[in-house]
Amino acid sequence: MNDILKKVGFDSEVFIKQLMIGAPIIIIFGLIGGKNSLMLAIPFFMGSLMLGSRNFSIKPFRKFLSVLIIGTLVTMLASLAKLDSFIGIMINLIMIFFVVFIFVSIYEMSLYLPIIYYIAYLELLPIGINDLKSTLILVLIGTMYVSLIQVIIFKNSFSKAINKGIKDEIRLLEDQIENIIKGTYNEEIYKKNIKSVKNLSLKIYSYRYKNNLSTNLGRIYFGISVIIEGFNEILNDLNKFQNINIDNYLKDFLINFKVIFSDIDLYLNKEIGSEIFEKKLVDFCEKYKDTSVEYYHIHQVLNLLKLSSIHINQYISLDKAERQGFKQGIKVNKNIFFTNIKENFNLKSLNFRFALRMSLILSFSIFLVSYYKAPKTLWLPITVLVIMKPFFEDTLSKSFERVKGTILGLIILSILLEIFKGNDIRIVIAILSIFIGFGFLRYDRAVIFYTIGSVLMASFTMGIYEPIIYRFLYVALGVIMVILANKFILPYRIINVIEFYKAELIDLNIELFDAVIASIKGIIDEEKIREILFKINLNSSRIYFYNAKIQNNMVDDLVFYNVGFIQGCLNNIISTKKDNLILENEDFQFIRNDFSKLFFYIEKHKDTKEIRENINTDISGMFLKAQSIEDKLFMIGLSNIFIATKYLEDSFKVV
Fold first, then answer.
1. What is the DSSP string of 114-151?
2. Which end of the chain, N or C, is surrounded by fewer C-beta atoms within 10 Å?
3. pLDDT score of 568
4. For helices 248-268 and 296-317, angle between their N-to-C axes, nearest 10 degrees
5. Per residue in 372-422, pLDDT tens?
6. Residue 626 DSSP one-character state
7. pLDDT per residue as tens digits for the range 549-577
8. Residue 10 backbone dihedrals phi, psi, to 5 degrees
9. Sign of dihedral through CA atoms 478, 480, 483, 488?
10. CB within 8 Å of 533: residues ≥ 6 apart
11. How far apart (Å, rounded) are the C-alpha atoms in residues 320 and 144?
12. Transmembrane ranges (predicted)?
């Protein structure tokens, strides 16, 4: 039954979870504030779900107080706005602008919604200034409920999510190793792992950004994710070069390599001790350390394993509280809140543009319905705040889903009204419809049930068919207003953001390549390299995150191919042994200059044929000079970096 429900987009687990969280708060608000206050419970219910990443285990009272202050301030301002329509529009313009400006970000695109919902409900429901005292009591109760939900249900959810992500990626690597041994390499596993790591990197950064992970834990998580990405790339490269013809020596290595992943899993779960794990790792590395340069992938694996051992041991050495996310991170900037406001308070900022757009259209829609006092006017501002998104593309898709779901819901409702005549059965259908809508992951399908429920409820006071007409008209008007606003009032398109991060990616790649050249001279600044890798991964994660909305395959390829470039650089840095290098530094300086020029040409879409021929000639000549295994491995790595830039260029042009 559950499988059938999932096929139509209904998640029973999500439905049950939301029902358990939502039903109590709605009942409490109804008992204390009466039927007019029932709708005010919805924003607090939404807040209970959306604040799950805020880690109330750390300084819970401060976070409780923050929510309470915001709720109290908004309640008082919204109550003042209701006194006069013209004064109200000015209060709403300022209030909505700052709520959206402060609470929207790439990491939490919808955190502003519960507050905006609360403003709309409070101003449009029959709750007057005389009800201010009882409303503030409901705010206190709602805040207590939200905080309680965070502590009980969402306790430690973020660290669990990251741990699960890492374990899932390790299992994907194990599956891929098995595929290579069988001669059935799976390209989809390779791409799935990259996507998983990018999502993980974005989560790690967002949790650090919110100060939910300690500095040590965030750094360890990031290090492990980069290494997993490295193993994934090595296996992909191995597949390309071996053409699935795995000899016995390589097969033996891969079988034992897979066992090491099982040991890592056991060690992370504390099913084996550090001494046993270290012995297994040392024995494995000793067995294959003298492998010839022909099997250079083995050397790359051994180097990464040594790094992974360091990060895993660091993770195990953390005390339980820090591992589970109960220790607060160290803020690099104690005034980060004011810094973000200062940085984003300009016309180029996503926050500023979206906040201005939302405040103008939502304030205007609230003014219209409060001034003309038409029936069921709440539906217009709710349509506006639901479908208006920071990006034009998201707004279009949300508008289409809203219209589609509304029309289907009204058609189904018309049929239901002909079948079920009694008010009692209609009340049951209305309540069930609204709660069933919570279980749908697709918005258009959820809207069908929200439409049925809300229009049925309206039919008890307006007649049978009148609310159907009003629902359609308000949704249509809201969609038209929002689309025009997103098109003409400081529009913000996803493709423009991707172009911006693409340009940044090129600059970061040059920085990383400079670190490769510096490593030849014996200069390895680990902190700087870690920072560059962190920025590249974050940048790639952002590109991947935004592209998920427009699903351009060439943008995904850009992310995938850049991973090859990163790992080529990383492998060369960690495998460099200064004592054995005999290659001339001057040769590398020429290559460094050519690579910088190559990246400049890629970014400007210029012809790279001549510069590529120069680099190819230099690499070939330097490979012939190489005598030691270390030199040969370094030049093979440099060749892989060069190959990766070709794939990068192809995808960069199309994007």
1. HHHHHHHHHHHSS--GGGHHHHHHHHHHHHHHHHHHHH
2. N
3. 75
4. 10
5. 777 777 899 999 999 999 999 899 999 999 999 999 999 999 888 888 777
6. -
7. 777 777 877 777 787 777 777 777 766 54
8. -100, 125
9. negative
10. 226, 512, 566, 570
11. 28
12. 38-57, 64-80, 86-104, 111-129, 135-154, 354-372, 425-441, 448-465, 471-490
Helix (H) or strand (E) holding 512: helix 494-520
Find the mean pLDDT for residues 436-445: 86
pLDDT at 621 over 80: no
Residue 105 to residue 355: CA distance in whole angstroms = 11
Q: What is the CATH number of domain 494-654?
A: 1.20.58
Long-range contacts of 416-423 (CB under 8 A, 24+ apart): 416/452, 416/456, 417/459, 417/464, 417/465, 423/460
Most confident of 265-274, 387-396, 436-445: 387-396
**Mean pLDDT for the chain overall:** 81
Residue 330's contacts (CB-CB under 8 Å, 6 or more residues apart) are 214, 215
How far apart CA 284 and CA 383 sit, in angstroms, is 61
Give the separation between CA 624 and CA 635, rounded to whole angstroms.
10
Tokens of 281: 């790792």
| Structural tokens at position 305 | 């394993």
Residue 398: both structure tokens together = 């949300």
The two tokens of residue 109 are 């695109």
- Judged by phi (left if over 0) then psi (alpha if -120 to 50, else beta), residue 213 lies in beta
Give pLDDT, residue 525.
75
Give percent of the chain with pLDDT exceeding 70. 85
- Cα-trace Rg, the chain: 29
